[in-house]
Amino acid sequence: MNVLKLTNGREISYLNEVEVQIGIDENDGEEKYGSELKNVEKSDITVHKYEGGFKIWECTIDLCDFIEENPSFFAGKSVLELGCGAALPAVLTAIHGAKEVFVQDFNASVIEFFTLPNFESNEHVAKVEGAAMGWDEVPQKLNGRKFDVILSSETIYNEDDYQSLHDAVASTIQPDGVAWFAAKFFYFGVGGSVPSFMEFVNKAGILTAVEKKIIAASVPRRIVEIRKKV
Ligand SMILES: C[S@@+](CC[C@H](N)C(=O)[O-])C[C@H]1O[C@@H](n2cnc3c(N)ncnc32)[C@H](O)[C@@H]1O
User: Fold this and answer.
1) CATH architecture entry for 2-228
2) Which pTM was predicted?
3) pLDDT in tens, 140-164
C-alpha cells in the first residue's frame, strides 16, 4: 500500500503498482480492457485515450491540503470528482463524512482497479459510485444529478476540453454548490492555464471562477473556485 502524506501529517492510503496489477490479473482486466491498458504501458498521456489516471499528479496534494483546511465542510455532502484518477481528494471528503461520492474518469480500468479500491483502503461510510465517461458525456449520463461539491485536479491542461469540462460542471453543480479545481498556473507545451480556463468559464456566463488559493512553487499552482452565477 502507498501512502500520501499531507502537509498537516494526515495520511491517505492508495494502491501501489503491484496491488493494481494483482487486481487486473485476478479480474480478467487484460481481457476486459486490453487496448486501454496498452496505452497505459506506452505513455503518461495518449490524448483522449489514457491521460494519466494511474498516477498521482502534483495538484492532488494541493486539493487535499485545501480540503484539510476546512474538514467539517464535507459532512453530509454529495461530492463529484471529475478526471479523478486515484481520487484521493474525493477519498478525503469521504473520510470527512461526505454522504455520497461519485467519481468519473475516462478509463474504466482506472475506475475499477485503482479508484474504487482506494476508497476501500481508507475508513469511511460514504456511498461510493464510479463510472467511466468523457466530460462531454457527463451532462447526459449523470442525467440531472446534482452535487454539493465538485472536485478536479490537473484537468485543465488541454484548452480543447474546456467546453466539455465547463458543461460537466454547469450540469451537475447544485444551485448553491461549489467546485474546486487544482491546477498548475501554466501547462508548458500543452496550452492550458489557470487564466485561460477562468476566462473561458467566466465568459460563458453561467458560472463564475475566482482564484481561491495560490501555491507558490517554481511552477506556481492555484485552487480555482467555481460557483453558479447569481
Ligand atoms: C493528469 S490526470 C490527473 C489525475 C488526478 N486527478 C490527479 O490529479 O492525480 C487527468 C485525468 O483526467 C482524465 N481526463 C482527461 N481528459 C478527460 C476527458 N475529456 N473526459 C474525461 N476524463 C478525462 C484522465 O483520464 C485522467 O485521469
Assistant:
1) 3-Layer(aba) Sandwich (3.40)
2) 0.95
3) 999 999 999 999 999 999 999 999 9
